[in-house]
């Protein structure tokens, strides 16, 4: 699956930077430490439109022409997309939110915060909120089960938790990560990702590997690894078909696995070896956009994501050891 690594573009000031595509894949959207959201028509866009959302922007999510951001004034805001008009505050925390994510339909947003809380908010009526309490340190990431029954979160307390959203209760908690007191000190952002479609697998980056857990049984069923990965994986993202998983790591490794075969099908390196902290798969084309901790944006182009059998559920279970 040889792909082309496009030259990096300067996008934001130095610091944590995130990226996503819009639903149609027409725009690449980034946010960063300068408090701006930039809307790129392509990687070659020399004058991307920008929206200032705060002093710093920690995270963004985009669905149904609604742009959600976590900014340094402890709020989660909505702006219209691509116009960038303010459309209200979804929720507030007592300190900054660290990660935001939409559910698959765009009707709900989840946000995790440095105040240990996870909130699930209805986009159409932000007074409809559920608060998931139980983490004992700042939240690193949140991801919805595509069927909208569960939410998974990772935290500086060392745990990855699956929650029943309606019951606001923990279903299971795995002690997988190194404990730390703050997101800035965490070895990895541990950005979880639930497989699209049936949501059979939850992908959890743990050190230099990705662990796959099965929805429902919550069994650990598979490990994705690559001998060339020597530093912690920060973020993972599924291909829209659910058959491939991409990972970006501290030190700039970019790896793509075929989840069925568990083989690495693409290996790339950040051109300067900077840490990859944002990753997004184009909704239809074979492209992955990624961002680094220096505020730059890159693109892998020409990824082959079509296979004769795109049945995304055929991951073989690891034999009991």
UniProtKB/TrEMBL annotation:
UniProt keyword list: Repeat, WD repeat
GO molecular function annotations of the record: chromatin binding
WD repeats: 9-41, 132-173, 233-267
One GO biological process term: DNA repair
Source species: Seriola lalandi dorsalis
Any single Gene Ontology cellular-component annotation: nuclear replication fork
WDHD1 first WD40 domain residues: 9-299
Native organism taxonomy: Eukaryota, Metazoa, Chordata, Craniata, Vertebrata
SUPFAM superfamilies: WD40 repeat-like
Entries under Pfam families matching the protein: WD40_WDHD1_1st
InterPro entries membership: WD40/YVTN_repeat-like_dom_sf, WD40_repeat_CS, WD40_repeat_dom_sf, WD40_rpt, WD40_WDHD1_1st
Name of this chain's protein: WD repeat and HMG-box DNA binding protein 1
